[in-house]
Amino acid sequence: MDLATHQRSLLGLLRSNLDSSACTDPYIHRVAQSPDLQEAKRNIFLWRIYVLERTAPLTFRLLEQRGQLAARVAHFIATRNISPFRETQAPAFLEASSESADSLERSVARFELALLKVKAGDQGRHIAIWEFEPQVILHSLASAIPLPDPLPLGLYHTVVSRGFAGNLQIVSGHPPVFNG
């Protein structure tokens, strides 16, 4: 086995997306059965949890409240090539969550990603579309209290930009139009 294939196989074991039974390398079979591999995977998972709780707290809390956090983080680890540097993990996780089929998860992640970008100096305006009243949801998530049930419905847009007080404006109804 060449070095590149060997390294891809080890990475596949760490990400839990390699079928080691289909591999002919005896070393890969030994590693696949190793308790050390399970410990390494557990450490990677816990590190991702630790970082995301601190750097993407709104999306983290939403997924946690819904009982989806562990599955989302495991999927993130298995499907994304993520740098070990924690600064890159939240944006990558939020980008992945921004593609969710779930409207609330998508809105929260897009909003939180916009906040990260503006906080890092981005001069643009970022809009997240909401099918729910964002102020109540954001307050609940920021305060670590349960979301209201049922969620207050409506069409809203959060606009995140350095040009607003607090970098945020909440608009009800149709998307805002900006010139320039």
Residue fraction in strands: 5-15%
The residue-averaged pLDDT reads 90
Tell me the quaternary state.
single chain
Give the count of structural domains: 1
Largest sheet: number of strands, sense, barrel closure: 3 strands, antiparallel
Description:
By secondary structure, the chain is mainly alpha-helical. The protein has eight helices and three strands, in the order H-H-H-H-H-H-H-E-H-E-E. It has one domain (34-172). The protein has a three-stranded antiparallel beta sheet. The protein has helices at 3-15, 26-32, 35-55, 57-65, 69-79, 86-97, 103-119, 134-142, and strands spanning 126-132, 153-160, 168-172. Strand 2 (153-160) and strand 3 form a beta hairpin. The longest helix is centred in the first third of the chain and has 21 residues, at 35-55. The chain is elongated.
Task: Looking at this protein, list some descriptive labels.
mainly alpha; three-stranded antiparallel sheet; 8 helices; 3 strands
Strand and helix map with partners:
Elements: H1 3-15, H2 26-32, H3 35-55, H4 57-65, H5 69-79, H6 86-97, H7 103-119, E1 126-132, H8 134-142, E2 153-160, E3 168-172
Concise account of the structure shown:
With 180 residues, this protein is mainly α.
